Amino acid sequence: MGAIKFGTDGWRAVISEDFTFDNVKILAQAMADYIKNDKGPASKVKDRRVVIGYDTRFLSDKYAELIACVLAANGVKVILSDRPTPTPSVSFAIKDRSLEGGVMVTASHNPARYNGIKYKAYYGGSAGPDITKAFEGYLGKNPVIYADPSGLKDKGILSYENIIPKHLEFIKRYVDLKKLKARGMKILVDSMYGTGEHYIADLLAGGKCKVQTLHDEKNPGFGGINPEPILPNLKELAEKTKKGKYDIGLATDGDADRLGVALPDGRLLTGHKVMALLLLHLVEDKGMKGGVVQTQCGTDLINKIGKKYGLKMYETPVGFKYICELMIKEDILVGGEETGGVAFKDSIPERDGILSGLLILEMMAMRKSKILDILKKIDEEYGTYEYRRFDAKYPDDKKARLMELLRTNPPKEILGRPVVDMKTADGYKFICDDSSWLMLRLSGTEPILRIYSEGSSEKRSLAILEEGKRIAYSV
Fold first, then answer.
1. Separation of alpha carbons 420 and 349, rounded Å
2. CB 409, CB 391: distance < 8 Å
3. In the prediction, which pLDDT does 319 show?
4. Running DSSP on this structure, what letter comes out for residue 475?
5. What integer pLDDT is reported at residue 1 of this predicted model?
6. Cβ(184)–Cβ(206) under 8 Å?
7. How many whole angstroms separate alpha carbon 454 and alpha carbon 466?
């Protein structure tokens, strides 16, 4: 039971080590105990059923059915997806039907040897620490109750359903597909063997757009890469986007809640630039207003855009559950992470890679502009921001010492620029007088150290990243 611990976004562990059928049963029982005893807002929803989805990983469908059988055997009515499902489809089903909550079996962008479980609360977004700590408190309190799925189905307490179409219908209403299809763009889409599959291509069918797909088939090994939409995982997409003279390349991660963007010149956009494009599109092209949320490793580019348009800015620790919490309480237009996960006003308080990709295309269609021209104008108005990240396996015995060093003896300058501000809500972020910055934090989903940097040029950003590595390995 000690192996079951919720991080920044659910519980993730290596399959057959800590992520076992027995541990999944124990967690499912804890969830059932919580749901049955919860007297909070979720107990007042219209429909007290729970929806369960799963990704394309090894045995994800079996883990999902196992969870469904434990919940249903405990008297919790369950809708189990009948196919691999994007995480935002699960969240949309919760909000659309006013369900009790939802479970998503996925390790998102983690390597193929991992699997995981996310819990989505009654509001259709990531469960906060109050709920996940309650799950942990119920672990092992009661013996696991399990029943065979056929009997549960006969009793009407377990049903199977394709929950994806209603989510796609919502996207059709949110995005002006008619204008988008009339533009006639050439688009390459990489689903990274995940749950994004062919849905972007399906939504764009019947118009002038020519859409080619990559890796939309199921492969539990993800072709030997991690299904995270960053380099080097998107090297093939970037090369083919350039070689094939596509207008843009889009990629969704393993559970389709994040977006990667490849440019016609073979470069990849950072998650920060993806979020900046989406924010500008909603404000300038669609006339929408509201606050903006990004995490502590966010970019000053977003702050500049917010300042220009008088938008209220918020900052949270890393983890979409914190962004989700603000989106529920405040009038938020866009909430996003540096990894390409973005949520939008009048949608769900949840990242949506499919919707994000279509909104980027809508921006190009509404402006009748190529993506490189749009990015050039952003750089001209707001300045150039180059962001980089390095993930390192870091010895457990050094983690506490590194964090203590950063707390008690933080750097006074970074590569000749004085540090003028330090943020400590999640790891340590050191901001220089020229707005460049370095950040070090321990991941909440993997046993690694993440080092982040941003500068006014790729050369400076990479140099700052190397300085971060030097500090980390000097401990």
1. 34
2. no
3. 86
4. -
5. 62
6. no
7. 12
What are residue 213's DSSP bridge partners?
189
Q: Give the burial string for 329-344 (b: 16+ CB within 10 Å, else e).
A: eeebbbbbbbbbbbbb
Q: How many other C-beta atoms lie within 10 A of the C-beta of residue 264? A: 17
Task: Please report, rounded to a whole number, the percentage of residues in the chain having pLDDT higher than 70.
Answer: 99
Distances from the Cα of 285 to the Cαs of 209, 281, 308, 327, 447, in angstroms?
Answer: 21, 5, 15, 22, 41
First to last CA, the chain: 32
Largest Cα span, the chain: 70
**Rg from Cα positions in the chain:** 22
Query: For the segment 48-83, what is each residue's pLDDT rounded down to a tens digit?
Result: 999 999 999 999 999 999 999 999 999 999 999 999
pLDDT score, position 179: 94
Which parts of the chain register pLDDT below 70? 1-2, 445
Q: Which among 342, 337, 349, 329 has a CA at the least distance from the CA of 296?
A: 337
* Phi, psi (deg, nearest 5) at residue 440: -130, 130
Angstrom distance (rounded) from CA 464 to CA 453: 6
Distance set, CA 230 to CA 266, 324, 390, 402, 445 (Å): 13, 23, 11, 27, 17
Query: What long-range pairs does 412-416 form, CB within 8 A, spacing at least 24?
Result: 414/438, 414/464, 414/467, 415/460, 415/463, 415/464, 415/467
AA letter at 460? R
The full set of domains in the chain, from first to last, is 11-166 (3.40.120.10), 181-267 (3.40.120.10), 269-351 (3.40.120.10), 386-473 (3.30.310.50)
* Whole-number percent of the chain with pLDDT over 90: 90
Helix (H) or strand (E) segment spanning residue 377:
helix 371-382
Digit-coded pLDDT (tens) for 166-210: 999 999 999 999 999 999 999 999 999 999 999 999 999 999 999
Round to whole Å and give the CA distance between 424 and 430. Answer: 9
Identify the three-state secondary structure at position 80. Answer: strand
Tokens of 397: 């015995």
| Torsion angle in degrees (nearest 10) through CA of 354, 356, 360, 361 | 20
Nearest to 58 by CA among 119, 15, 8: 15
What is the rounded CA–CA span in Å between residue 343 and residue 202? Answer: 22
CA angle 390, 322, 338 (to 5 degrees): 30
